[in-house]
Amino acid sequence: MKKIVIEKNESVAEVIDRILNEPDGEITLVIPKGSALGKTMRNFHLLKREIEDAGRTLIVESVDENILAFAKESGIEGSHPLWSGSQSRGGFSDILPEGGDEDGGLPADRKSLSAKKSSAKKGRKGEQSVKIMVREEEEIGEENEQWDSRKEKDGAAVVEEAEERDFYSNENRFFKETSVPDARDGEPEPRSGGIAKKIVGCVILGVLVLAAVFWGVPHFLGSVKVTLDFQKVPWEYKHVFIADKSVGTVDAVNDIIPAQVFVSNKNITQLFPATGKANVSQKAKGIITIYNAYSSAPQPLVATTRFATPDGKIFRLANGVTVPGAQVMDGQIVPSSIDATIVADQAGAAYNIGSVTKLTIPGLQGTAKYSGFYGSIASSTSGGFVGSKAVPTAGDIAAAKAKVTDILQSVFPSGAQANYPSNFKILGGATSTEITKLNVNTSTDQNGNFSVFGEAVFQAIGFDESALKAFLLTQAENGNASSAFSALNINYSGTEADFINGKVSFSLDAQGTIEAAFSSDDFKNSILGKSIADARGSIAALPGLVNGTVSAWPSWLSNIPSDPNKVQIIEN
Fold first, then answer.
1. Is 6 inside any structural domain?
2. Which of 173, 192, 224 is the last residue of a domain?
3. DSSP one-letter string for 433-500
4. Residue 253, SS3?
5. pTM of this structure
6. 3 state DSSP class of 558
7. Alpha carbon separation from 198 to 7, 189, 194, 208, 307 (Å, rounded)
8. Which domain holds residue 348?
9. What is the tens place of the pLDDT at every residue in 100-143?
10. How many structural domains is the chain composed of?
11. How confident is the model over 12-71, as pLDDT tens digits?
């Protein structure tokens, strides 16, 4: 069977030409939805007539329910590509003569308009009546049949006209709960009831939206700003105080406050270039670890005790040491050890050696202790030299000492103050730096630098400034409780420190502004969730208040939000 797919804008004449030009006698005509061919049923009557005259068989295939209905009414077999068989998803009508099947063998549910015409003609000759069966098919496959009958008028033209009129006037027979397009323009009939329902729905939706806005906006986005102005009173105070480490509390009668003395030690080693030259002879130095694997008894070793490397180099102890006794565990000796400084027996670079696993003590040779006491060099020895070398001059040494002293007296105090408690105040003139050591090592390294070691003791006398401010507030309140400083500026002068007794005296000049004590966090928590009217009452009861306002958003907000992040307290 030949399948012809037509375009939406093809006319009925063009379609008939395409069909007649096909050699096949059986044609399937595929009509797209919205095709011009489906605007009027007359097109399908014309198709039916021309196909029958040409002796062809035609089946219409379409997803357009209206097209399938037109084809059905015109006596052309219709087919929907998405459902089995030739039935479509919508409703169809079959027109049958009373006598039974006379349409050329089509099934009972697929009767065509050709059968109707044939029956109508028989009605004119034999005065037979025609029954019209209307069948509606639901999506779930259930079928409900309705029958009605009518008399056909005489004449084929009258029958055809009546059939087309009945199709449009009785559109509900073919499409359940849908509108059949008008034969003239294909537009559906308007429904006044549907428009009214839409208007009612829109009104209800609008009311719901407004209700959601009036409830949801305050609930989720509402916020409150409270602005408070308190009475402010200027205040000034001048006095001389003593901070003393020997007292533990403020003595308001004698103007003495507790003090604390901070003491810290600092040492540094700095390298300086040597500008002189000299022939020198230096011995290498290093660190040796001495082991006692002999007994649990300690063993003293005097200064200059010799230690020999496997290749015969001799190093001597710079100072006397006592090697601790070994431990004896489960009958086994666990060696003990001690570190000590050694110096090469001779000058020169030959004694600048690397690590040595074992050095023996020649003075113990021939005794049982010889194998039980030994040493090892873990790193290396260095400094051995013979020849011309850079050496520091007297000027180099004096300048180096001055530099180390300056570092200890200036940099050290500023670094020490970083370790004080944040609430402690250290006044200028209440600190002292004492240099306790300045040692110069005139031996130069491979880069010609010598070193200076310096040590200092730093002292500072401080006091808790927060405790002092609390004392000043008691003076400013003058017996009136619940006050606070909204601003306070303190100038200190005339500092005199006594580091021996741990005291410091100073003059104080304070200027500030006092107002009623108020905690914005506490007040905010007290009004959360309350009505705005109650919140205004709480504001009016605040002591020392000059003015207070509450600004709410949106304007119809009735309660303070329970979320503290949505409440702002501003103090002016």
1. yes
2. 173
3. EEEEEEEEE----TTSEEEEEEEEEEEEEEEEHHHHHHHHHHHHHTT--SEEEEEEEEEEEEEEEETT
4. coil
5. 0.42
6. coil
7. 36, 17, 6, 15, 111
8. 276-389
9. 343 434 443 443 433 333 433 333 333 333 333 333 333 333 33
10. 2
11. 888 998 888 888 888 898 999 889 888 888 899 888 898 888 888 899 999 888 899 888
